[in-house]
Design brief:
heterotrimer, B: alpha+beta, Immunoglobulin-like, 2 domains, five-stranded mixed beta sheet, 34% helix, C: mainly alpha, Cytochrome C Oxidase, Chain A, 0% strand, globular
Chain lengths: 194, 268, 573
């Protein structure tokens, strides 16, 4: 029979930071496996192929892709600033930085679509070569996850406006957003540059 | 070799009550041997397990007055014995079959015959037939005097090593010779190599062992093993049918055109 | 208004309670188990009575009426669709929802003393995503040209437009499998986080029941390897619908650079861990159940947990043994063979621990125990026969023959299914508050165990005789003539096996409504879920349990009046 002295409160609140972060970490780990597999597959196809159709991209879309890489990097920076303001409980500044991140995220997405549009009208379509297929696959999959990230950011924005204590949410969404930036850098380096 | 076959027959006709197809290859006995070794060891070990379980069921079933002996099995002695038994199983089965297998692979299956006394054939399966190509008198593939028999017919001379290179025309197939105990996948875009040697004459079946579509189940070929003389006569008769007009097959006959490749350099 | 008041919809349909979600997965799993099992009956019928019309008791009047080879007759195309869907459904829609979805959800929070999963909303979504996946898969039956038909492994180029199999069945198959994978991932995130963070005070990792250990390791493997197959499926999907040629090469390729072998590697890097994913929960359940019904602790508990973890870790580096005949380099082949054989060490060790649990115990042959012991038998045989396939030379002969089919049905169908049955019989009283009928359970057991051995052992015999796989009509081949008689015998045994499952369903459904009411702990088991009454309230434990010892305290000489003590009960002073 339990006495008062032996009953303990749950030492772990399931809403605590580490628990929630663990969930996000595992999610990011799994998504990382997805992108890693696709990137490694690209590598294998390229190495094993006797004939590798390396279609080149025109200059304009290439420049846009470079710019876009900068955009997403900057968006990670703005989010980082937002996180910092949240730590010192400056709600308005946090909101400002998060909004900037959302804005940059949308710019990134729109630029991606523009890039796609320019490329397809110049004959660089999914089925024109192996490298084009890889490009559209990876940028498309990344784009889908960006959309998910934007949804998360907008949700976060609403949460901040409701003045709830959302340092945890900021941290979680931040993990996801920074992950997307890193994925883009890797895709960019392997597919575009190499 | 015959000695080994006799021993095999003596020991192992009883365990698997259906025999594999007659082995007419020079190295098939190796595969049969390793299978039979595993049979024996498994019978012994699983037999012990089965007997142990039977014993436990009889001796330890719950009844009034019988109590379980509290034992967590985590003493050094218990863990040591368990690990020891596990290691024993590993050493007696795994290490042995690994040794046998590596030996067989190095001595036979990956030990490709070289030189001129080797018959070379290109095989190209398609949905749903087997195509074969012989090099002809100039011993070079991809030339005008290549010989292509009708689909699904393959001839080889007895007692001579045969090396095949195989690539698929459309989907993945697998060239399976039950009487030789071997198979190799045929993947489009990739050339695989395999070798074998027949010890007896006769006609044997070729089957496709990788699911390839709705007629996969009847993608059957016939391998005829014959004396050297008969084999040469057969090649001659193919030759007499006339030179292969197209360098590559005849689409009207259903033989895909533009098949065949210059013999891939033998690396192994 | 009472804050806890729940409508029918939030209580039963869109519930966030892990127990309800677990039951939802149970219904889904049992439905597809029967569906897949029926497909197996059709396959066996077709093999024994090729090109003959289906009998009335296999619904020959309703099925295959539009078959191109005659009304009610299974032709080669239909046969190919059958074995494809049978494999896919059994693996992803029967075993996964049953062992991982149902018992994972139900058992994990209860066994670790948690109020629920860490992410209840995610849990609910994971079920409904699986439901959506199920609809997508079943929708392919409505397509005019039928379902996917390239085998559950769906190797390209056969599974791409190059392969010549008409229709969109393959596309729906790929989509539904991707959705199922997403559902599994969600579950894995939940299970891992819950086990890591919500264990009750005093429950260290080595005090968790082995069922939870199995589910924990399974979830880790899921989180790592399911995205890999998702990547492969995405590539396959693009090749099917977008005209890409990642996986097409040779004469039929218009875009150079594709490689069908890439898919095989990606598939089996996932595929081999997948078979361990399927069996780890069963191993855990069996380890626990053997302990409960031998009334002594699981022998070498810590060693077993470590062995299971080692096997899980090694599972990711042995995939090449599915591909020995693809023409890989000899060095690579040898490496895979060596690693595959290494796994047999931890496997034999924890199998010996199972024997150790029975040794000097007091064995109670309840129905869950019968199934648990039968897992020892079938897994012992199945695992040992894996040796033939691990060895390259014997695998050259046995690859793509019925030997492999027999081997994996022993290790997967038999071991996992009997583990699942053991789990169902064991936790039924906790889930539903009633007991299943013992007599029917024993009939179910014997009429499953014996026929199953007769069917699948003979498959290995057939494989040894050279019978290759996925053959609609084996009488085409001369060398298979000696084997054909065996087919009829196996079909008869398979039909008996099928009927036995009907007995199970009758028992299950009847006991749900009219079964004898069960007391709180009918098996006198020591794990936490047996310390609370059914129906278990939302939040599970009214007080947070404190854990004092391991999960298998049976027969401890310190106990005076009973032979067991619960995990959350301290030893009497």
């Amino acid at each position: 029979m339990k006495t008062l002295s032996t009953v303990k409160e749950f030492p772990i609140n399931k809403n605590d930071h580490f628990t929630q972060s663990l969930g996000m970490i595992i999610t990011i780990g799994s998504l990382a496996m997805l992108f890693i597999t696709l990137l490694v597959s690209y590598g294998i196809l390229r190495v094993r192929a006797n004939i590798w159709n390396s279609q080149t991209i025109d200059t304009l879309p290439l420049i846009l892709i470079f710019i876009n890489t900068g955009v997403i990097l900057f968006s990670s920076y703005t989010y980082f600033k937002g996180n910092k303001s949240a730590v010192i409980h400056n709600r308005l500044t946090t909101q400002k930085w998060v909004n900037t991140t959302i804005f940059l995220g949308f710019i990134f997405l729109i630029f991606q679509i523009v890039i796609w549009f320019i490329l397809t009208s110049n004959g660089f379509i999914m089925t024109s070569s192996q490298i084009s297929a890889v490009f559209y696959l990876l940028s498309g999959l990344h784009g889908i996850h960006i959309i998910a990230g934007l949804i998360l950011l907008i949700w976060l924005n609403i949460k901040i406006q409701l003045m709830e204590n959302n340092h945890l949410h900021l941290k979680l969404v931040g993990m996801f957003w920074h992950f997307l930036t890193i994925v883009w850098i890797v895709i960019f380096s392997t597919v575009i540059i190499i | 070799m015959n000695q080994v076959k006799k021993i095999n027959k003596f020991f192992f006709s009883g365990i698997w009550f259906l025999d594999p197809p007659k082995d007419v290859s020079v190295d098939g006995w190796r595969i049969d041997n390793v299978i039979q070794y595993i049979d024996v060891v498994i019978m012994i070990y699983f037999g012990i397990v089965a007997l142990a379980m039977l014993y436990f069921i009889i001796k330890y079933h719950a009844r009034p007055g019988h109590k379980a002996i509290y034992d967590r099995g985590d003493t050094k002695k218990h863990v040591g014995i368990t690990l020891g038994m596990g290691l024993l199983v590993f050493l007696s089965i795994d290490v042995v079959i690994e040794g046998l297998s590596f030996r067989d692979l190095n001595e036979a299956f990956w030990n490709f015959p070289k030189g001129d006394n080797v018959v070379r054939i290109e095989v190209m399966p398609q949905q749903f037939a087997w195509n074969f190509r012989y090099a002809g008198n100039d011993n070079t593939f991809g030339t005008e005097d290549d010989l292509i028999p009708s689909q699904n017919i393959m001839h080889i001379p007895v007692n001579k090593p045969v090396v095949i290179q195989i690539a698929s025309y459309d989907v993945i197939h697998s060239f399976y010779l039950p009487n030789f105990r071997i198979k190799i996948d045929a993947t489009p875009g990739m050339i695989n190599t395999m070798w074998f040697q027949a010890t007896e004459t006769g006609t044997f079946e070729i089957a496709c062992a990788e699911f390839c579509g709705n007629s996969h189940y009847r993608m059957k070929g016939y391998l005829t093993v014959e004396s050297e003389e008969d084999y040469n006569n057969w090649l001659q008769s193919l030759d007499e049918e006339g030179p292969v007009d197209e360098l590559w097959g005849d689409e009207d006959e259903g033989i895909p055109i533009r098949w065949g490749w210059a013999w891939k350099k033998e690396a192994i | 208004m009472n804050k806890n008041h729940k409508s029918f919809w939030t209580k039963y349909i869109f519930s966030k309670d892990h127990k309800v979600i677990g039951k939802q997965f149970l219904w889904l799993g049992i439905f597809f188990l029967l569906f897949g099992g029926f497909q197996a009956m059709l396959i066996r019928w077709s093999l024994s009575n090729t090109m003959e019309p289906l009998p009335w008791w296999l619904f020959g009047n309703i099925l295959y009426q539009n078959s191109p080879v005659g009304a009610g007759i299974i032709g080669p195309d239909a046969y190919n669709q059958l074995f494809t869907m049978h494999g896919t459904i059994m693996i992803f829609w029967a075993i996964t929802p049953l062992l991982i979805g149902a018992f994972g959800n139900f058992c994990i929070p209860l066994q670790i003393g948690a109020p629920d999963m860490v992410f209840p909303k995610l849990n609910m979504i994971s079920f409904w995503v699986m439901f959506l996946a199920s609809i997508t898969l079943l929708a392919s039956y409505l397509l005019p040209q039928g379902t996917a038909a390239s085998g559950w492994t769906s190797y390209p180029p056969l599974s791409t437009p190059v392969g010549g199999i008409p229709g969109q069945g393959q596309t729906l198959w790929t989509l539904s499998l991707t959705l199922a994978g997403i559902s599994t991932l969600m579950g894995a995130i939940n299970y891992i986080t819950t086990i890591v963070r919500l264990r009750a005070p005093g429950m260290g990792y080595f005090k968790m029941p082995l069922t939870t250990w199995g589910l924990f390791l399974t979830s880790i493997l899921n989180a790592v390897f399911v995205p890999i197959i998702a990547a492969g499926l995405i590539i396959l999907l693009l090749d099917n619908v977008a005209g890409t040629q990642f996986l097409i090469a040779g004469q039929k390729a218009t875009i150079p650079g594709g490689d069908p072998l890439l898919y095989q590697h990606v598939f089996w890097i996932f595929g081999h861990p997948e078979v361990y994913i399927l069996i780890l929960p069963a191993w855990g359940v069996v380890s626990d159940l053997l302990s409960v019904f031998s009334r002594k602790p699981a022998f070498g508990y810590k060693v077993t947990a470590i062995c299971m973890s080692t096997i899980a870790a090694l599972s990711g580096i042995v995939w090449g043994h599915h591909m020995y005949t693809t023409g890989m380099s000899p060095l690579l082949g040898k490496a895979f063979m060596f690693l595959t054989l290494i796994i047999s060490i931890p496997s034999s060790i924890f199998f010996l621990n199972w024997l150790g649990t029975l040794w000097r115990g007091s064995l109670k042959f309840e129905v869950p125990m019968l199934f648990a012991m039968s897992v020892m038998w079938v897994f012992g045989l199945g695992g040992l026969t894996g040796l033939y396939n691990a060895t390259i030379t014997s695998d050259i002969y046995l690859h793509d023959t019925y030997f492999v089919v027999g081997h994996f049905h022993y290790t997967m169908a038999a071991s996992v299914m009997f583990g699942a049955f053991a789990a169902v019989y064991f936790w039924f009283p906790k889930m539903f508050g009633r007991k299943m009928n013992k007599k029917l359970g024993k009939i179910h057991f014997w009429f499953s165990f014996i026929p199953l051995n007769l069917v699948f052992f003979n498959m290995m015999v057939m494989g040894y005789a050279g019978h290759h796989r996925r053959i609609f009509n084996p009488s085409e081949y001369e060398f298979l003539k000696p084997v054909l008689g065996l087919n009829d015998f196996m079909t008869t045994a398979a039909f008996i096996l099928g009927i036995a499952q009907v007995i199970f369903v009758i028992n299950f459904v009847f006991s749900l409504f009219k079964g004898q009411k069960s007391e709180r702990n009918p098996w006198e088991a020591a794990t936490l879920e047996w310390t609370i009454d059914t129906p278990i309230p939302h939040g599970n434990f009214t007080e947070v349990p404190t854990i004092y010892h391991g999960p298998h305290e049976y027969g401890n000489p310190l106990l005076k009046d009973k032979d067991w003590i619960s995990q959350s009960e301290p030893f009497p002073l």
